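Q: Trace token order:
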Amino acid sequence: MAPNDSAHIAEEDDLGTGRRRAARYAVPVAVIGVAAATIGLVPALAAAGDPSLPKISAQELIEKIAASDTERLSGSVKISTDLGLPSLAGLGDLAGGALAPKDGAGGGGSASTADPSTKLMELGSGTHTLRVAADGPDKQRVSILEDAAEYSLIHNGDDVWAYDSASNEAFHATSPEGTEKGRSGNKAEGLSGKDVPATPREFAEQALAAAGDTTSVTVDGTARVAGREAYRLVLKPKQSGSTVESVKIAVDAETGTPLKFTLAPSSGGKAVVDVGFTKVDFGKPAASTFDFTPPKGTKVTQGDEARQADPVEPKLPKGGEGAGKTAPPTVIGKGWSAVYAFTSPDGAPTAKDTAGLPKEAQGFLDALGDKVTGKFGSGTVYKTRLVNALMTDDGKIYVGAVTPDTLVRAADGAK
């Protein structure tokens, strides 16, 4: 099927309503590392040959996504991401030593290996296989399959269970009555599965929520994903300076559910994020899918215990009155080329202070960073294939999904 010409720029001014409706479902993307890291998924296996489907406009396809009422599904996805980060080897022991709780904290002397707040960060790099299932807003399950083990996160009503078969440890948290689910303050927050992107739909809704008048939105033919017929929706920045070349979303022709999400970088090469089902079933999962009882001998950590075992936040060097405080970031530019600028908290390390870091951390930062100069002075740009950050020697920070040159121009213009 050829690209739909009716979905080009002349139509884009009418897309606001659809985007606002799609924005209701937006799910934040996890951010890790010096600049940022993003959970990604490798492509779904697609059958040969693109299906022949009725023509549809970009506006109609966005509306179809927003109107989709898919709440029940099960299937498999593969996970991979390529941010272009250097190896983290050598940093694990450093981080472990700095962040490990004190002996006796939480009764066990260490945090649970099943705690989702740390375990799910592993999805920020490498390749993983997931099994996912959902039955409405109160029942979700995500399982990470490993060579000889499995990690599962199960949300069933007010209960959230996580289980790591490799260590035979489990984590349990609940939402008290009268408290909005996921905001109990006992580490149940963010563990329902809704706050951790694990399907193409969640990535797609994030992208659509961010789309505005700086985005070209078109329909570019059809695809077959996990045995399903789908339309291809393409989002591209109209502006220069972004690290994003395009976002492509394969939308199920029958249900409006995104089946595949691909974020291609402007620098070329393989996708930074590529999300797709390998298998999907829109039937009701078995009720037992969301049941969990810890196996005999499992070490169970309760959410309140884990909170008590959390390490004490490291104190920043004294920097006089107001040390440690920082103002909200300001936004320079808009859309895909937006840069977020803020000042390091008083007393916090600046680019000049990194020489005092441990050797492993210094080597990692050196691999990420390039020294730059401009009207703003001098500093270091820390790079990934998606998000870049400029830290100036005088404590200013500029971050965005933009090129290093765009960061430098933003810093120069802010002076």
Notes: DSSP finds nine helices and 18 strands in the chain. The CA atoms of residues 172 and 302 lie 5 Å apart. The mean pLDDT is 74.
